[in-house]
Amino acid sequence: MTFDAISEPIAKRVTAGLAKIALALKSRAWKGAGGAGVTPTQGQALGLLREAPKGLRLSALAELLGVSAPTASDAVNSLVSKGLAAKEAGPDKRSIALKLTPAGKTLADRTDEWPDFLTRAVESLEPDEQAGFLRSLVKIVRALQENGDIPLQRMCITCRHFRPNVHDDVLNPHHCAYVDAAFGDRHLRLNCAEQEEAPAEQRSAAWERFRVPAAAPL
Ligand code: SF4
Q: What is the C-alpha separation between 141 and 102, in angstroms, rounded?
């Protein structure tokens, strides 16, 4: 077939599309960060600290940001000097927990709006297309994590509470043992506060049960 011969592999074209989205996000992040007086890394740190009301250690923040400890330390020190974050004694007294100040929380809420333009674009997809896209994204993010290309993500597919494809219900085939409820691909989470990373053997077994495409539209 003519187009089989003249087309680049699908994976390459998907990657090109993702690169265009990444470029748009980067450009918006710079604009949003500049207006807010913080760098994109500092903006990301604000977002992560907002999701951790009990605070984060510097090492944990560096891991979530995917940057070195010195880079994370620079970002935190800058946020502290701007009155957006504070260093407090951690639970074991010798550790330091990083937390947002009220001003930092307000700014974190604002910086969270940066990707809204992308959300609006995703909303142009039909509901079943959004669910399918989410499932594909989960698989891509998992592969990046397994290959060590991104830090650990708090997602269902690697969670010890995730029981994929255990229900005879095409709309809600999965089960979350944490809330003891069935759910579907459209509910998959990429950042769940209750996520606990499963041991390697459980992650591998869950992946084998999950990766087979759903039998019916979601
Ligand atoms: S606890 Fe959260 S991440 Fe884990 S399976 Fe339930 S919803 Fe998914």
A: 32
